[in-house]
Amino acid sequence: RLCELLDNAGRGWRKLAELAGAEKRFKCSAEELEMCSLKVLEPRGSPTQCLLQLLAERDCTLKYLLGCLERMGHEQACRVLSSAVQDMIRITVQPESQVVAEGTQVSLTCCATGPPGLAYQWFCGRQEVPGATSPELVIDTATPAGQPEWYICRVNCGATFTFSRWAHVQVEKSSSPSSASGYCLTMVGLQILRQPRPCRLAEGDTLALECRAIGNPPPQYQWFRNRRPVEGAQAPQLQVKLVTTAERGSYSCRVFNLFHEVWSQEVDVEIGEGPRQTSVTPPPALFPRAGVSHSITTPPSPIPAATDKVALLIGNMHYLHHKQLQAPIVDVHALGALLRQLDFKVVSLLDLRKAEMQMAVNEFLLLLDKGVYAGLLYYAGHGYENFGNSFMVPIDAPSAYTSEHCLCVQRVLREMQQRRTGLNIFLLDMCRKRNLNDDVIPQVGALEVTANIVFGYATCADAEAYELSQGELSNGIFVTFLKRWLLEDEKITVLLDKVAEDMGTLEITRGRQALELRSNLSERRALTDPIRPPGQDESSARNLQWAKAHVLPESRHLRFDCGVTVQLGFAAEFSNIMIIYTRVVAAPKDITKCEARLTDIPEELDVDLKCTNKESPEEVGSPLAPVWSLGCPSCCLYSRICGLQKLRQELAFTICLQYRYQGMDDFVEERQRVNVGRPLIAKLNLQ
After folding, report:
1. From which domain of life does this come (predicted)?
2. pLDDT tens digits along 643-672
3. Do the bridges between strand 652-661 and strand 345-350 make them parallel or antiparallel, or are there none, so unpaired?
4. Which of 4, 246, 468, 511 could form a disulfide with 685 if both were Cys (CB 3.0 to 4.6 A apart)?
């Protein structure tokens, strides 16, 4: 169908090839395009078919292809492809691993959605289970010993198929008469066969606890952490991927049915540094994927054990009791973009309260270990310095704040040193005036002699740091000049010296603001220094933890009863600020006007309702709209969602569709509730 639509000279396959080629690996050469065009000379040849084959060989995804068709404005082709994607087979109910008493029966269930005519086939290990061609498989545990205990279900429609996940059936033997072949469930009510076990995990591991019981009626489950119910944890197995310290605690499971209730034993889950648990892995997949095997080689590196560079950027602007600032949003964004070019992993956050700042720093410290080459902390906002100690002021600091309400930079640095980071860099873009409300001298303790510390103060002691207004945008003086040198291959102290020299040439701040550099760096270390590819370490806690703070919800299409299809998309401005856009992509011909608006946004988020559902990115109140809007389609309604670190549960909102039929004056309204999980920094539970 796509070939029929695109085999023409207008908005056809050549335009698709041009747009797909925006990503280098999908760009077709002149010879390949000529090969496609010559297909018209064949009896059943199709240039589009040839182009799609080339894209498929380069691992082009359906999502990317759909995006190219949307940019072409080819609505009919978009509808065809969207329909095809929806018809893919999807497993909706996975078979669950179970522990059962010897001599009883157990059932496994696999349900799927997809095109009509789905067929099921169960496998035991690698062997087909004869006659097991329905969604439910009943297993008799009294069968002879020795048969495989792993089960999987294949769902297919013609040549298209997919597999469920593996389910492990474990038969428990017991010396008690009640577990013999004449076992009567109604006599004992509920019995727990498998208790959860305590465990110690590292950051980024997967937590897996299991409680298995038998009973009649069948048992139900509810997991508890620290004696409070875990939301959504109502299965025999509790699994949490990419764990953080927020998941540690005491876990137990309440098992119940209509007549009885029993509790599992309470077990402790510790999360932090230490050896990880090993887990049982299921047998290999029945049909290995065809393809090329890849091997990763680690090139020699002059820097031993240097595997990562990480950065935390914090910009505080909208203070509750103090003067508002303008520059941090621009400075943090600009600095983050440059650091990413230097292979830094960057988390950038705006407008944090004290507890949120402390939690963000704690999460940052968890990422640092002996394999980290450089850890960089940049802060832009209000600050002060008393008795040689610097303090970062959160947005909720009271009017007469003291060190009790702020974060001490030296304390953070001391904790970074304890993590044995190769290079610690602080870039503090804040005032260093004395705070007359604070006469307390905090006992921070002496810093270790590690020869790895670089302080870059935007201004000298007892002086202020200034912003430079440039039209609608404002830059801090420090970052204005730092941007010029940050990508240079220079020792970090030499680089900052050049920034200081440039700052001294600015007439309006001469004698009022000057960069101060403190360092005990004894080796040549630069931000541009290469890092060793981590190889196996890609699955480390650090990488997984960092990835969690950057995951956006998947773009999706919502279908309403009236026949209208709405695209819901997402873009990230910072790690705690997300753009949500809605766009009508298909509507019946008898609907003349319709729009989809975002409503019912959680109250704890910082959302200016006057700046939601705007027709242009510039109207949402962000000076960075020209940057993030490049990745958004046209003809959308845009909303800017701030303060994602405040989310206490999954982000849910309503899409309100208002439309009008041809020849009618009144609008009709339909609503759909949408849950997008915990996006970006919300996954780290900073509240």
Report:
1. Eukaryota
2. 998 888 889 999 999 999 888 888 899 999
3. unpaired
4. 246
Do the domains 551-683 and 308-546 match in fold? no
Residue among 94, 129, 120, 91 nearest 108 (CA): 94
- 551-683 classified as CATH 2.60.40.3360: yes
Three state DSSP letters for 590-639:
CEEEEEEEEECCCCCCECCHHHCCECCHHHHCCCCHHHHHHHCCCCCEEE
Residue 248 sits at φ, ψ, to 5 deg, of -75, 160
* Dist. CA 665–CA 663, nearest whole Å: 7
Rounded to whole angstroms, what are the CA distances from 241 to 77, 351, 543? 37, 28, 13
The token pair at 233 is 């944890």
Give the residue among 326, 335, 378 at the shortest CA–CA distance from 483. Answer: 335
Residues designated catalytic: 382, 431
Sign of CA pseudo-dihedral 37, 42, 43, 48: negative
**d(C-alpha 687, C-alpha 685), whole Å:** 6
Gyration radius of the chain over CA positions: 30
What the block records as the tokens of 37 is: 């065009």
Class of the CATH-defined domain 308-546: alpha beta
Delimit the domains of the chain by residue range. Answer: 1-86, 90-171, 191-271, 308-546, 551-683
- Per residue in 304-348, pLDDT (tens digit) is 335 678 899 999 999 999 998 888 999 999 999 889 888 888 889
Q: Is the dihedral of CA 168, 174, 177, 181 positive or negative?
A: positive
CATH 3.40.309.10 holds for 191-271: no
Q: Which CATH class is domain 90-171?
A: mainly beta
CB 595 within 8 A of CB 639: no
Mind giving me the DSSP string for 367-424? T--TTEEEEEEEEES-EEEETTEEEEPPTT--TT--GGGSEEHHHHHHHHHHTT-SEE
Answer whether 643's CB lies under 8 Å from 576's CB: yes
**Distance in angstroms (rounded) separating the CA atoms of residues 314 and 584:** 36
Homologous superfamily, domain 1-86: Death Domain, Fas (1.10.533.10)
- Tell me the C-alpha distance between 192 and 224, whole Å: 16
Q: Cβ neighbours of residue 255 under 8 Å, at least 6 residues apart?
A: 190, 192, 211, 213, 215, 219, 220, 221, 261, 262, 263, 264
In angstroms, rounded to a whole number, what is the distance separating the alpha carbons of residues 380 and 477? 11
Q: How far apart are CA 401 and CA 440, in angstroms?
A: 12
| 407-459 residue pLDDT tens | 998 888 888 877 777 788 889 999 888 888 887 777 666 566 565 788 888 88
Q: How far is CA 23 from the centre of its chain?
A: 23
